[in-house]
Design brief:
Elements lengths: L10 E5 L4 H12 L5 E4 L7 H6 L8 E4 L2 E4 L1 H11 L11 H27 L4 H20 L19 H20 L10 H11 L2 H6 L3 H15 L12
Parallel strand pairs: 1-2
Antiparallel strand pairs: 1-3, 3-4
Helix pairs in contact: 1-3, 1-6, 4-5, 4-6, 6-9
Main location: cytoplasm
EC number: 2.5.1.18
Organism: Zingiber officinale (Ginger)
Length: 243
């Protein structure tokens, strides 16, 4: 536990502008009011600094706290809470609520994100239809938990009245749903099928810190289209990287 607030020189974040995991850490730092320096990295061409601090995966984001590396976005979020427990907390105080936030954060990375990625990499036809259906099945699970008897029933955010860890984890990936809907000409978040999730996402996106963190949708769409072109074997800018 660090009793003193950090200076901008204490925390350095290595990340990528279009990477949702980088956005998680950026958003968490802003929510907790922690100053930091930022270094833009190419996820396809890890710099010596990234490889030095994350030799196992060579992936982003990497948070350096006084030169010591903290890796994996969800681990970083919990580290921030444990190191600076005063003020805004991302994890709830109740152990059962903390366990639920951690479980559904794992679900977001282990189930939801891969299903969304499958839509993006799919071809028109039955394969894409099946991929979209898998996203819907995963969203149904979240919708259920937000309703009667669910772990997050009656809450404005998953974290309660304020954005918490699960909001950050889910929200910093869910904006890609709108991007992929346009890029792939599919419907992933139907407000009639998923009213609670849809309302939560709109509320999340309106928060000042979120608007300061997430790039404009048109820029993300341009990026997604370039990545899609590269995946299909066309030419793409050398600076385009797949998350």
């Amino acid at each position: 536990m660090d009793q003193q607030p950090p200076t901008a020189f204490d925390l350095e974040l290595l990340g990528s502008w279009a990477d949702s995991h980088t956005h998680r850490v950026q958003l968490a730092l802003k929510l907790k009011g922690l100053p930091f320096e930022y270094q833009e990295e190419d996820p396809l061409r890890p710099s010596p600094a990234v490889l030095l601090h994350n030799p196992v995966y060579g992936s982003l984001p990497v948070l350096l706290h006084r030169g010591r590396a903290v890796l994996h976005s969800v681990v970083i979020l919990q580290y921030l809470d444990e190191t600076w427990p005063r003020g805004r907390l991302l994890l709830p105080s109740d152990p059962c609520d903390r366990a639920a936030a951690r479980f559904w954060s794992h679900f977001a990375d282990d189930k939801l994100a891969p299903s969304v990625a499958a839509v993006f990499s799919s071809c028109p036809g039955d394969g894409r239809k099946a991929a979209v259906e898998q996203v819907h099945q995963n969203l149904k699970l979240l919708e259920r938990e937000m309703g009667g008897g669910g772990a997050f029933e009656g809450r404005r955010f998953f974290g309660g009245d304020e954005i918490g860890l699960l909001d950050v984890v889910l929200g910093c990936g869910s904006y890609w749903l709108a991007v992929f809907e346009e890029a792939m000409e599919v419907k992933l978040v139907d407000p009639e099928a998923f009213p609670r999730f849809h309302a939560w996402l709109r509320d999340f996106e309106e928060q000042r810190e979120v608007r300061e963190t997430i790039p404009p949708i048109d820029k993300l769409l341009e990026y997604a289209n370039a990545v899609r072109q590269m995946m299909l074997g066309g030419t793409a800018d050398d600076n385009v990287a797949v998350n």
